[in-house]
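Record 1 of the preview.
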Amino acid sequence: MDPIERIFEVMARGGKRLYGTREQVTQLAHGLQCATLAEREGASPALVAAALLHDIGHLLNPDEWAALARGEDAKHEIRGRDYLAQWFDDDVVMPVYWHVAAKRYLTATEPDYFDRLSPGSVRTLELQGGPFTADEAAGFAAEPYADDGVRVRRWDEGGKVVGAATPDLNHFRPHLESCLRT
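->
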């Protein structure tokens, strides 16, 4: 099976679950909304792909929700990065990895960002270590692809609208195909 078909199968299978425990959109709808927001902003194909796939680590982990119930961070950004690195370069993989750290960064550097988080994001922020310290924020900002992780993070928060109209997965296939490692 080609890589995109494998990814789409993971997304279709696991995407029926609700995103988090408090949001009322599915995982698939969330990914599609994020990719749509990225596309509307004129993001590169790599960033559209990262926006679509940023939470694939949730879908790959059968213990994801049990870990959350136990008060553990399942580190979906690492699982997603490692899975996607089979086929994509850092311009797709690293924004997926950095989108969690970007939440910690934004809550530390933008006074009103925390107030805009969804209830589920507030809960996971706590499990992920809370807002960065000033030193951690500065270290994150210096990382390659940190800015792209921040962009994915902003689309992440915007991609939780019940009933939002989006294209289907196949609409985003050309973005993913253009980013596949040859």
